[in-house]
Amino acid sequence: MWVWIGVGSRYHNHMMTINTSTKILLIDDDAELADLLKDYLEQEGYAVTTAHDGESGLAAALSGGYALLVLDVMLPGVQGIAVLNRIRLESQLPVLMLTAKGDDVDKIIGLECGADDYVPKPCTPRELVARIRAILRRSEQQNTGQATGVPIIVGGLSIWPQKRKAEKFGQQMDLTSTEFNLLTVLASNCGHVVSKKVLSQQGLGRPLARFDRSIDVHISSIRQKLGDTDDGSAYIVTVRGKGYQLAKF
C-alpha cells in the first residue's frame, strides 16, 4: 500500500474541460492507489485510464490515444522497464516513471531506457501533477514553438523547435521529448557552458533537485545518439563543477 505523505490536496469546485490532449494512462498494479490517483488527476482536469499489469498497459500505451503515461516500475508479469523498452521501439509517448524511494538503480535505468522523468514513491499528488504538467508543457511545445520555424543550426546539427525535429548531417535523430529539449538548450548556447540548474529548468521544466542525476543520464543518452566527432571526442563536453557545453560540429 502506498501511503501519501503530506498530501495537502485540494479539489477544485468548478468544472474543468477535458480534451484529448489531457488523456493520461496510468499503469500500476495497486488498484486502490490507481483509483486514488485517477480521482485526484481527474479533479485536476485530466482524463485518466488505468491498467494494472504490464501486458494490458502496453497495449493501451501503443494505441496512440494518450498524451502521457505514468508507469510504475514494479508490475506483475511484464515489468515496468520492459514496458518502457517496448514502447520506445514504436513511440515517443512521454513517460513518467514511479520508482521506489531511494532506489537509484530503477531511476537511472528508467531514464536510460527513455523515461522523461521519474517520481519516487511515496510522494504527494501535488508533486505528481506538477511533474505531469512539466512534461506535457514540453511535449506540447511543437504547437507553440518558434513562429518563424527557423531552425537552430550548429554545423551539421539542425534543430526545428516548432516541428520538434532534429537532424545530424541530414539524418533525423530519434530523441525523447526531454532529450530534444535538452539538446535544443545546448544548441542555443553552443560554445557556452550551460549549468545543470538551467538545463533542469529549461529541459525538465522543474528546479534541479539535490542529488538528482536525471540531467547526467539524459545527456549521456544524447551523447550516444550524437556519436563522436572525427577525432573521437564527444560533441557534448562536461565542464566539471559548471555544467555541459555543446562543441561546434
Write up what this structure looks like.
The chain is of the alpha/beta class and 249 residues long. It has two domains: 20-141, Response regulator (Rossmann fold); 145-246, Orthogonal Bundle (Arc Repressor Mutant, subunit A), CATH 1.10.10.10. It contains eight helices and eleven strands. It has helices spanning 31-43, 54-61, 80-90, 104-112, 125-139, 177-188, 196-204, 214-226, and strands at residues 23-27, 47-51, 68-72, 95-100, 117-121, 152-154, 157-160, 165-168, 171-172, 236-239, 243-246. Strands 2-1-3-4-5 form a five-stranded parallel β-sheet, with helices on both faces. A four-stranded antiparallel β-sheet has the order 6-7-8-9, with helices on one face. Strand 6 and strand 7 (157-160) form a beta hairpin. Helix 4 (104-112) packs parallel to helix 8 and helix 6 crosses helix 7.
List keywords for this structure.
2 domains, four-stranded antiparallel sheet, alpha/beta, five-stranded parallel sheet, disordered N terminus, Arc Repressor Mutant, subunit A, 11 strands, 249 residues, globular, Rossmann fold
What's the helix and strand layout?
Elements: E1 23-27, H1 31-43, E2 47-51, H2 54-61, E3 68-72, H3 80-90, E4 95-100, H4 104-112, E5 117-121, H5 125-139, E6 152-154, E7 157-160, E8 165-168, E9 171-172, H6 177-188, H7 196-204, H8 214-226, E10 236-239, E11 243-246
Parallel strand pairs: 1-2, 1-3, 3-4, 4-5
Antiparallel strand pairs: 6-7, 7-8, 8-9, 10-11
